[in-house]
């Protein structure tokens, strides 16, 4: 970035701050619905880089789509789009743009309450002259990919669809020619998809009474339609291959022998022939798929690259005449014996992991009602040998039902290919799709579900023969899960015990490629109970000869055989610079092509400046293009031009969008400017301090909007883990799910302190004390923080630390703990209900940072539990804990509240009935946010205490609760 441009930015920022300060007034919670901002994160440039589209408008209200040219920012057009956000889609040749227009915000809310649909319009705008055409009741639309001559629109039915077995699922599909504006209508279309070059359209028909149902192929150049297959069935999930030369789909049809429709597979290739080659497969009559299994409705079939086979998923299917249920153990044993075929999935579409027991689990069949059945107990048996807890199996039942075991069908031999079993449940394919690797968790599944330390055996699977070979035994997955095939399919990169290895898939020889590099690839910031956690990798180079690995600061190009390594960064360790991300500006590239320019996000760990670095084509030296006191977003390059786009934001400037036509990003043009109506913060200050453990750490102090040097301000300390990397982020006013919104507090005269916390194993709570208390003292020493008016707040893990800190220090005048765990001993063996698993693994390998169960580590569990130090609490406390919290059990909040209440400590428990770990309902978000600020205003600003805090609540005297309670509770001046 040029010196001239930096000066310009600084002068604009100063002018902007001065102007904002002149009109700055504190925000109230009533202001949030009308807060207007630009949705720069959803901005879309045209493929030629000449246009940019973005949405702007209030948080709650009617929005506007802004369309402007990048060469002349004054040439812009505005389109009202109603109360819902819309995607922005440009045609391939950048001659048209299309977007939805919804009903206004009030109508949408009214329709939602009345359970009426919100039908949308589609506006198509010609970028040549901005002439537009509007289509009513559009459900879906697509441009014809590379061809770009057509627009396909599938319509909603203005009347509710009939719910009966013969009612069709299809709707009208309109093909609109963008060149001559001619329209062609196809009725009862259920699914459709253009191929890559946009000259072919595959579509399925699903009509009333299934009359004329089938799959069809339309050649848009000739207008010829080919009937691929007709049947009284439903055809769906059309999926073209990448090249657009073949497609596959599913067909479902009722079968009297099965309870649910039976799915079959259709593959079409040689699509340009007069009669395209069509292949169908069910696997039922052929008895080739494992007994009790059929093609899964939840899979999306896809062709192999050589078009010799189709990959798809299988799942259990039930016959009409069901035999009496076996016991659970019998079902699991049966599965292990019978599932001879399983998992095959491309690396870009991996299956969800699942256990054998889960695959066997299904909804119990409702027996015929009789007296004996009514006398049976309604109960669950929890057995210590279960690999997954019964609660986990129950919670994950729907996911397990949708899980499908990926398989393959060989076209030439009409053969179902078995590649895995109930243990090796999924296969990641190599790029050549001739081999794959699979992870077998089963030997370690039981123990990993207890302590969270995950291992797996890695197998190499030959796709043609189904032969498998054990390649890596007991690979530790907590440290890194970056296993990947080389582009040549000859090797696999993986991490183990502090080093990266390359596995030869033919010989299974393993080569340590980092042992001779004078650096460490063990993360210095990951302080969980994980052995030698990895720093990370950006993956393989396009030619398969190198991998790009990062240590804690520098980036390395390491050869496949480990015999050579090149540091791509200029000793960034000495400068404390590091690459935060790889920005892939070539969407079709699956690996890093070093013959092209490559971009990376960077950060300076000294001051949290961020920027962009360039690794020029065929170069071994990274160049930092920009580094500034702002958060710089990833670089995006358009497809058909040398135009680079990125966003920029600071605590005082909302996200702005820039474009440069130079790959060095010099002289960027601001396309979308700061949308803030007023100043919400006067900026941020990075503070360095020494923890009580002797570590040099940092904290961010966000300044209040009305900041005047030399004055002190009430301060909210917000904690979680490490937060300083967000120093330059902008905070948007919003109703928060966790109660706290930084912008609202800085706008209302508060400073906000966010410190980093570094943990010692077996001392998570004490580590928070050792880091947070010195951070507060360092913030006070700046002269900005009013030492007598500092409060603390955190949610979830931050709520735990808040609850603990007030047992160890009295520096906080008030505290709010959201969803806190308070008793590590009782919490350890409770259930994480959102997943159904126990908390034990969270304590021993994740946030808990404890090394064993409490029976071998009692002192650590007690020492770090708020409940065991409850007599020390002198700080007034609000606990927010909901009765349906699926992460931190509700009893944790209740236990802490009742303990404090028994000791006559000032405490209020807020419970939002029916809510989970965070608040999802807007009425509850408003309520909690207002109560929290009322409370802090009382203790830190001396305002009158609200009645709900000072007087208590008589349940029988409660007035009717109103949805706009948040606006009745307080009016913030």
TrEMBL record:
Q: Where is the composition biased (Polar residues)?
A: 343-355
Pfam families annotated for this entry?
A: Peptidase_S9
Keyword Oxidoreductase found: no
Q: Which SUPFAM superfamilies match?
A: alpha/beta-Hydrolases (SSF53474), DPP6 N-terminal domain-like (SSF82171)
Keywords, alphabetical? Hydrolase, Signal
Peptidase S9 prolyl oligopeptidase catalytic domain segment(s): 773-942
Where is the stretch described as Disordered? 343-374
Bilayer-crossing residues are none
Signal peptide positions on this chain: 1-20
- Write down the InterPro entries for this protein, in alphabetical order: 6-blade_b-propeller_TolB-like, AB_hydrolase_fold, Peptidase_S9_cat
Q: What is this protein called?
A: Acylaminoacyl-peptidase
**From what organism does this protein derive?**
Sphingobacterium griseoflavum
Q: Species lineage, top-down?
A: Bacteria, Pseudomonadati, Bacteroidota, Sphingobacteriia, Sphingobacteriales
């Amino acid at each position: 970035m040029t010196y001239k441009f930096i000066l310009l930015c600084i002068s604009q920022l100063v002018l902007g701050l001065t102007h904002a300060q002149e009109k700055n007034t504190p925000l109230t919670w009533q202001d949030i619905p009308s807060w207007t901002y630009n949705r720069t994160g959803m901005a879309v440039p045209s493929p030629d880089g000449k246009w940019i589209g973005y949405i702007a408008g209030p948080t709650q209200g009617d929005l506007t789509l802004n369309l402007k040219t990048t060469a002349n920012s004054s040439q812009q057009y505005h389109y009202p789009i109603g109360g819902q956000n819309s995607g922005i889609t440009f045609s391939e040749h950048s001659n048209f743009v299309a977007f939805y227009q919804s009903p206004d915000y009030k109508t949408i809310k009214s329709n939602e309450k009345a359970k009426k649909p919100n039908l949308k319009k589609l506006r198509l705008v010609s970028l040549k002259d901005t002439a537009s055409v509007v289509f009513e009741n559009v459900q879906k639309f697509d441009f014809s990919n590379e061809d770009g001559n057509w627009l396909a629109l599938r319509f909603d039915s203005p009347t509710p669809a009939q719910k009966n077995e013969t009612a069709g699922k299809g709707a009208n599909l309109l093909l609109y020619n963008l060149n001559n504006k001619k329209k062609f209508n196809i009725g009862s279309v259920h699914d459709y998809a253009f191929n890559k070059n946009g000259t072919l359209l595959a579509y399925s028909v699903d009509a009333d009474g299934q009359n004329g149902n089938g799959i069809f192929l339309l050649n848009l150049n000739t207008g010829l339609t080919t009937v691929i297959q007709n049947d009284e069935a439903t055809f769906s999930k059309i999926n073209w291959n990448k090249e657009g030369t073949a497609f596959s789909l599913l067909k479902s049809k009722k079968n009297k022998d099965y309870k649910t429709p039976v799915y079959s597979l259709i593959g079409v290739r040689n699509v340009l022939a007069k009669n395209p080659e069509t292949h169908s497969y069910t696997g039922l009559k052929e008895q080739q798929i494992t007994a009790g299994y059929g093609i899964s409705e939840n899979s999306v079939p896809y062709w192999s690259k050589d078009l010799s086979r189709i990959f798809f998923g299988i799942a259990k299917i039930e016959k009409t005449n069901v035999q009496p249920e076996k016991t659970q153990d019998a079902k699991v044993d049966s599965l292990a014996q019978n599932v001879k075929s399983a998992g095959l999935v491309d690396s870009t579409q991996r299956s969800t992991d699942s256990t054998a027991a889960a695959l066997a689990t299904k909804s119990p069949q409702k027996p015929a009602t009789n007296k004996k059945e009514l006398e049976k107990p309604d109960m669950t048996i929890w057995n210590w040998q279960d690999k997954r807890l019964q609660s986990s199996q129950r919670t994950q039942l729907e996911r397990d039902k949708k899980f499908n075991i990926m398989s393959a069908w060989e076209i030439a031999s009409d053969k179902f290919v078995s590649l895995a079993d109930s243990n090796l449940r999924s296969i990641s394919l190599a790029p050549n799709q001739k081999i794959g690797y699979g992870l077998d968790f089963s030997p370690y599944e039981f123990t990993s579900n207890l302590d969270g330390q995950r291992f797996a055996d890695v197998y190499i699977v030959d796709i043609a023969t189904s032969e498998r070979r054990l390649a890596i035994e007991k690979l530790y997955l907590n440290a890194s899960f970056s296993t990947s095939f080389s582009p040549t399919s000859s090797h696999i990169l993986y991490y183990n015990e502090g080093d990266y290895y390359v596995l030869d898939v033919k010989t299974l020889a393993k080569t340590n490629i980092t042992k001779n590099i004078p650096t460490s690839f063990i993360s210095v910031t990951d302080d969980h109970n994980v052995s030698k956690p990895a720093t990370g990798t950006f993956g393989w180079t396009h030619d398969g000869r190198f991998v790009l690995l990062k240590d804690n600061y520098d980036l390395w190009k390491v050869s496949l055989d480990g015999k050579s390594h090149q540091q791509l960064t200029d000793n960034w360790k000495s400068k404390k610079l590091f690459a935060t991300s790889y920005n892939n500006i070539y969407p079709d590239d699956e690996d890093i092509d070093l013959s092209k320019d490559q971009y990376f996000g960077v950060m300076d760990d000294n001051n949290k400046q961020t920027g962009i670095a360039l690794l020029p084509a065929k170069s071994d030296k990274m160049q930092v293009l920009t580094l500034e006191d702002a958060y710089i977003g990833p670089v995006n390059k358009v497809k058909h031009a040398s135009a680079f786009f990125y966003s920029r934001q600071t605590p005082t400037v909302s996200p702005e969008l820039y474009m440069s036509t130079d790959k060095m990003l010099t002289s960027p043009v601001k396309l979308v400017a700061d949308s803030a109506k007023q100043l919400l913060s006067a900026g941020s200050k990075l503070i360095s301090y020494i923890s009580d453990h002797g570590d040099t750490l940092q904290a961010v102090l966000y300044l209040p909007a009305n900041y005047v040097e030399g004055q002190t301000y009430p301060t909210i300390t917000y904690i979680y883990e490490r937060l300083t990397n967000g120093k330059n982020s902008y905070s948007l006013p919003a109703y928060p799910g966790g109660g706290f919104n930084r912008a609202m507090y800085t706008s209302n005269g508060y400073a906000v302190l966010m410190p980093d916390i570094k943990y010692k194993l077996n001392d998570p709570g004490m580590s928070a004390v050792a880091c947070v208390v010195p951070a507060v003292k360092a913030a006070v020493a700046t002269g900005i923080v009013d030492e007598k008016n500092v409060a603390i707040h955190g949610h979830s893990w931050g709520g735990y630390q808040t609850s603990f800190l007030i047992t160890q220090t009295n520096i906080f005048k008030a505290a709010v703990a959201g969803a806190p765990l308070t008793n590590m001993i009782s919490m350890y063996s409770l259930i994480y209900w959102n997943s159904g698993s126990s908390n034990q693994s969270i304590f021993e390998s994740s946030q808990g940072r404890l090394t064993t169960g409490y029976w071998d580590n009692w002192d650590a569990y007690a020492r770090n539990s708020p409940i065991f130090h409850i007599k020390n609490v002198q700080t007034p406390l609000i606990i927010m804990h909901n009765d349906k919290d699926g992460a931190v059990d509700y009893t944790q909040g209740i236990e802490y509240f009742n303990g404090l209440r028994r000791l006559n400590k000032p405490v209020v428990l807020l419970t939002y009935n029916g809510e989970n770990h965070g608040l999802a309902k807007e009425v509850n978000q408003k309520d909690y946010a207002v109560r929290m600020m009322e409370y802090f205003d009382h203790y830190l600003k001396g305002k009158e205490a609200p009645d709900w805090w000072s007087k208590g609540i008589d349940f029988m005297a409660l007035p009717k609760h109103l949805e706009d309670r948040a606006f009745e509770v307080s009016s913030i001046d």
